[in-house]
Amino acid sequence: MFEIWLEIVLTRMAWIMVALVLGSGERVWGHETAGAARYLGNEGVLVTLGDVKVLFDAFYADSYGSYVLVSESDREKLMNDKPPFDGIDAIFVSHAHGDHFTAAPTLAYLRLHPDVRLFGSWQVADSLAAATNSDDPVLKRIVPFELQPGDTPEVVQIENLLIDVFAIPHVGGARMAAVSNLVFRVTLDGLSTVMHLGDSEIDNVLFAALQLHWDARHTHVAFSPYWFIGNEAGERILTDNLKADQVIGIHVPAESVGNGDGWRNRLGGDLFTDPGESRAVGHGHVRGGAR
Ligand SMILES: [Zn+2]
Ligand SMILES: [Zn+2]
After folding, report:
1. Which of 85, 130, 174, 290 is the most buried (most CB within 10 A)?
2. Which domains, ranges and CATH numbers included, belong to the chain?
């Protein structure tokens, strides 16, 4: 009898502890740390959480006649450190295709922002190195990754960012096999985790093989190429493997501009279509954050 009573007391105490931890967390996080994702064009996204800001695939010059370029006004704000692009902590580049990355504007940005580091594929790093002198100090702030699909993801921690890097083949099969495409999962300030999939292939086998690593940290928002959305195999990856709270489709063709709702209804999921659009980004309950 006493044992049962003790067990009930202990169970209650455990629940009170959980409630206290969750309650104090809410107070600490407050509203000022609410996160947001803002669309620049194609796969360009700015993610902010309070003072912590990261940019994905934001410096590119080619539309290939199909994709949205970064607006002149956003480009001007980016280069000149004007809100909302002031105080960027790091920039990420998924791969070296002209609708995601162009060396000249990337170098120009890095020169103007001496505290910003770039994380990208080795092909991005090579392309930057080829566009400047070998002793250019900018090159010291480039962090290249040489991962192959199937490799164990790499983990990098800098100040308030925890970064996991995965290699997933570029969409297009054998034709694109030589292109190194990276998926970045970034936790801002230990609170909000976002994932950017670049131009990933819908490869159910490879995504499933990395399950242990997807599960290592909870993802609040995944920025996924729009070909995953409304596609049965793509949706399986988003739901069963990545398990993100929220998915936002990117790389949506330019013809969607001004007709976002039509495209969202047709594909049955959320999409970024018009530059300047933004969404709230969730926070809290980042499992395995101490990895
Ligand atoms: Zn590409
Ligand atoms: Zn692309």
Report:
1. 85
2. 35-281 (3.60.15.10)
